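Hi there,

I know you've been waiting on this one. I reran it after we fixed the sequence typo, so this is the corrected version. Both the input and the resulting structure follow.
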Amino acid sequence: MIVLRNVEKYFEHGPTKTFVLRRINVEVKEGEFISIMGPSGAGKSTLLHLLGMHDSAWTGEYHLLEHAIHKLPKKDRMELYKKYFGFVFQSYHLLDSLTVYENLDIPLSYRNIKKSERDSIVCDVLDRFQIVGKKDLYPNQLSGGQQQLVAVARAIVASPKIILADEPTGNLHSSQGKEIMELFKRLNESGTTIIQVTHNERNAEYGNRVINIADGWIAD
């Protein structure tokens, strides 16, 4: 489903290069649940954002299904992102000018779904995450944990083929965190491919494979 070949990312400082990712070769099969682990600063989140096409300043090959992402212009990459991906950002990335309801509606608006059907889907997700009472609030009116729940809800609302999650339970109580991981497990069992960055060994155990990164390299 996803193949990275010899992917590298670096920053240039005059004549010197500081590498963030080095010679990354990864294959992700459809339906896998992968955990990316490693120390802080190892390149985990950088790799996740590269997979999510938020970063285009890298070298190497990235294949997604039949698409050669490394050859596509930014506009085409964004269309594929909207079609296939849901992303849980570590810092939420909710749109401050939109209500919780409107934030959840955004991913559905990218697809060819009638407004009445979108309303039904959003209501179901609000109910599933027990945030119906927050639907008319804005992100700055929510606690960190509530924003995290909305961010996870937004990532799954359009039933994406692939969920990318950066520390998805980082700001949640342990019971809420377990609920989110159980939800991811159920989504994965129904065919959704999930790639998460986590420091949490318990969360990593929900996956079927761990990719360890250290100093930008995939560790054997």
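Quick highlight: Residues 69 and 176 are 35 Å apart (CA to CA).

Best,
R. S.
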